[in-house]
């Protein structure tokens, strides 16, 4: 199979070893240095390949060779779909009747003749007449560290959820809601963290580029780069800001982003701030991605084409088919931006995230982004990759120059957690997380509920479809002392409300058994066993 | 007594399932009442339509000969 690598002018037989001894272009080696696999081309129209709609002389991907499993998405019955829509119509109807008869004070805008309305009509209507009714399931205050268990401060309402008052009681619950994958929230790295706070204080009152860099930050960046197996890394004090401030530094108006439809709000906001053109491909659908990418190459007007994906999708519990994406980006000469917010530390045999899980060399991904807020029990995020990329980001990403430096005790917490991951205790935690995930997913499957996503993902969404069922499930589980999170619109489509369980290495088997029992009771009472697969 | 309790449990279980399926679980009491009445009216109208139009139509078909059916159609 002789082929031309896009734009590189060098024909070679992919079945033979190349001159460096690599068979499948697994790692790109130039001048004895490992590069990130992306070969910059001066001109995509390089004369010896004709780009048509098929992407020129580059053969189509044979997807049967790759693991393209997008995650399990069981379809609901027509009856369930019809009832869900019918219920939404009833809610809307009652909301309109309510608004017509008893207009609340907040809904009337005074002295605003001649101005556009302050609020988007649909969203304010939604938040008043749908969200407000289930508001007791959201924004629940807690009064303890979010470890394996947490303490909920109980509230009640006298005016149908418009306002709440505290009852003065507290409830100790098993925590299935926090992204505490490795159980480092409330872990005993506290001595080192306290020492860092004493030495450097809590805030540096300066961005990194001015007087905000301590040896701790340098150490953290070097450790992160080594942990991930790349050349360099930059750390930012806020996870969400890592994306929103990093992407505008990397992309500009001439670049095209191929973005997964389920990407997180921070990625979407970053892409908008970058003024890059965004085209959305169906969730985890590599075939659709290939189609869009080939069409984009044929347009011949983009300075760069970047695939923007996440490692683990927090609302779907799915894992990106990374090996397939890397193969595609190699073949077509694209770049890859991978957000590992939920996967770093939680996936893979060594906890290195989705690269480790999929068996992809980290250098094959151009930009590795991730956060420290989940697995490491700290705050902030990182971007890692080649030294050139990181230097560029220090100069052009706003986070390094303008945002406040990461708090030193936070940096110390990440360092301690990251080092622990390579010791026996860390490996034990990884094993525990994987066991807990498999056990919990297996038990849910036996109950007959619809779970989404990949079997290895520690985020386990359970579809309940309607808002009522979401609220009722959260209420029942709280009564059984299990704290978890219900998710509905706007985080999910209107008719796909779900309960999201997040597993942690700190859960013991006895605790999980209690959770499973509580969930089983709720499933029986509320009729959540929608699944039609074998139990 | 046991029997009555079981029936009560059965009814309350299916009442909650009905509320959940129609999203009435999370609305105010007066809104629930309004929707129950709307459902009641709709059901009654359906029943009356079936009783008066469909049933009598079928009865007419049943009592007619093949020749009549050809004419009706």
From TrEMBL, chain A:
One Pfam family cited in the UniProt record for this chain: Aminotran_1_2
PROSITE patterns assigned to the protein according to its UniProt record, in alphabetical order: AA_TRANSFER_CLASS_2
Stretches that traverse the bilayer: 78-102
Gene3D superfamilies given in the database record: Aspartate Aminotransferase, domain 1, Type I PLP-dependent aspartate aminotransferase-like (Major domain)
GO molecular function, one term: serine C-palmitoyltransferase activity
Record-annotated Aminotransferase class I/classII large domain positions: 172-519
GO biological process, one term: ceramide biosynthetic process
Gene Ontology cellular component terms for the protein in this record: membrane; serine palmitoyltransferase complex
Catalysed reactions listed for this entry: L-serine + hexadecanoyl-CoA + H(+) = 3-oxosphinganine + CO2 + CoA
Enzyme Commission identifier(s): 2.3.1.50
Keywords: Acyltransferase, Membrane, Pyridoxal phosphate, Transferase, Transmembrane, Transmembrane helix
Cofactor(s) this protein cannot do without: pyridoxal 5'-phosphate
Stored PANTHER family: CLASS II AMINOTRANSFERASE/8-AMINO-7-OXONONANOATE SYNTHASE, LD36009P
Protein family: Belongs to the class-II pyridoxal-phosphate-dependent aminotransferase family.
Protein name per Swiss-Prot or TrEMBL: serine C-palmitoyltransferase
Protein's organism: Spodoptera frugiperda
From TrEMBL, chain B:
Keywords of this entry: Membrane, Transmembrane, Transmembrane helix
Transmembrane segments: 33-54
Domain of life: Eukaryota
Name this polypeptide is given: SFRICE_022167
Source organism: Spodoptera frugiperda (Fall armyworm)
Gene: LOC118277004
